[in-house]
Amino acid sequence: MTDELLKIKSIEELVLQLNTQRQVGNKLVGQLEHLDIDFDINLPLAKQTVKNRLPAASSNDFVFLNCRFTKTVTFKSSHINFYFLNCTFHDINANDKEFIGKVRFRECEFKSEVLLDNASFRELVDFWHSKFYKKTIFHKVDFDKTVVFSGSTFYENVLFTYTLFAKLGIFRGTVCKKGYDISLAILEGNLSMFDFELKDFDVVMGPLEEMEYESLVHDKGDIPIKNKRETFRILKNIFEKNSDHIISLYYRRLELSTYDVLLKDKINQKIKPWTNRLNRAILWLNYNSNIHGTSFFRGLIFTGCIGWLFFYFSLIATSDYYMTFNPCNWSLKALTDSLKYYFISISPVHKHTYMDELGPTWSFYLADFMGRIFVSYGIYQTVQAFRKFR
């Protein structure tokens, strides 16, 4: 936005600038441009005010081009279409309002909170390439048709708390610098998430009372950890539904990593500690064997290392080999001679008699049995990671 803006201090001064008309579709509408509107304003402007200044205008629809609203913009329920192009807002209040017409905020900047509690948008809402600098909470907002956040950037948390997506929400190229919470949204329609950018983010931990929880997702704009996990699960399912398996695996990894933190928190609270410890162990194996299905190279490393570990236990359970921590007793020949047995042991279907000439003890068979299980698991995890491009 250019800094060469004409400062307007009152509605009377604003009306005097109302001398431009713009063709929008088949309508001739009023336009205000290059203004610094430095007073509290209610929109839409009175119909008669527009008619008196622009008698040729065929509609009460309005365009604001390259304007800065330094005070509060309060919307009233209306049937008209709003067009805000390259505008800056410092305070917006549209609580409990109904918008029958289309509303467009294209390439706009929202410097403060956007208050939209219980707002209803019956037609298109467009935030194309807009920027939100503060925590943004869409609380009980009804998007009856299409809502567009394409190319928009949220610099703080954005929450869609009990918000209705009745038809289509478009998040193409949307960037979330902090948190994103869609766990409580009512998804009757579809969400288009192509090229959506979201990384791991900070959340509120610990047990929450109902009032504390509602305060976070409604007033404070903070995201509880269970909402974070549910958000990643929803995003994973959206990309799976669109057959975008690569991105769905990314959100699956974030979901499981969040679940691991959630389990740790429950253990600290002594909530089913043994069950949650077991689940954390499973997640640990899943992560270290293929990073939750995303790395076949990790699968190869895991299989090789876990195979060597149990092979080593099998080897020292024979009469010909023993374990020592004294480097003077280490033998390179013993290592090279044992390698042939390692490559046999790495096959889950090898015969248990492959070390009979070394004099195996009973613990050899236990280590060999456990090795088969973990090597088979590693091979399975490697194959699963290979199939991420299916």
Question: What's the structural blueprint in terms of helices and strands?
Answer:
Blueprint: E1 6-8, H1 11-16, E2 20-24, E3 27-33, E4 35-37, E5 41-43, H2 47-53, E6 62-65, E7 68-75, E8 82-85, E9 88-93, E10 98-99, E11 103-106, E12 109-110, E13 114-115, E14 120-121, E15 125-126, E16 131-132, E17 136-139, E18 142-143, E19 146-148, E20 153-154, E21 158-161, E22 164-165, E23 168-170, E24 175-176, E25 180-181, E26 186-187, E27 190-192, E28 197-198, H3 210-220, H4 225-241, H5 245-268, H6 273-290, H7 296-315, H8 332-345, H9 362-386
Parallel strand pairs: 1-4, 3-6, 4-7, 5-7, 6-8, 7-9, 8-11, 9-12, 9-13, 10-14, 11-15, 12-16, 14-18, 15-19, 16-20, 17-21, 18-22, 19-23, 20-24, 21-25, 22-26, 23-27, 24-28
Antiparallel strand pairs: 2-3
Helix pairs in contact: 4-5, 5-6, 7-8, 7-9
Question: Main attributes?
Answer:
membrane, elongated, nine-stranded mixed beta sheet, 9 helices, 36% helix, transmembrane, 390 residues, alpha/beta
Report on this model:
Keywords: Membrane, Transmembrane, Transmembrane helix. This is Pentapeptide repeat-containing protein. The chain crosses the membrane at residues 296-317, 362-380. Among the domains are: 207-293, no CATH class; 296-389, no CATH class. Helices cover 36% and strands 23% of the residues. The chain has helices spanning 11-16, 47-53, 210-220, 225-241, 245-268, 273-290, 296-315, 332-345, 362-386, and strands at 6-8, 20-24, 27-33, 35-37, 41-43, 62-65, 68-75, 82-85, 88-93, 98-99, 103-106, 109-110, 114-115, 120-121, 125-126, 131-132, 136-139, 142-143, 146-148, 153-154, 158-161, 164-165, 168-170, 175-176, 180-181, 186-187, 190-192, 197-198. The strands form four sheets. Strands 1, 4, 5, 7, 9, 12, 13, 16, 20, 24 and 28 form an eleven-stranded parallel beta sheet that branches. Helix 5 packs antiparallel against helix 6 (273-290) and helix 7 runs antiparallel to helix 9. The radius of gyration is 31 Å and the shape is elongated.
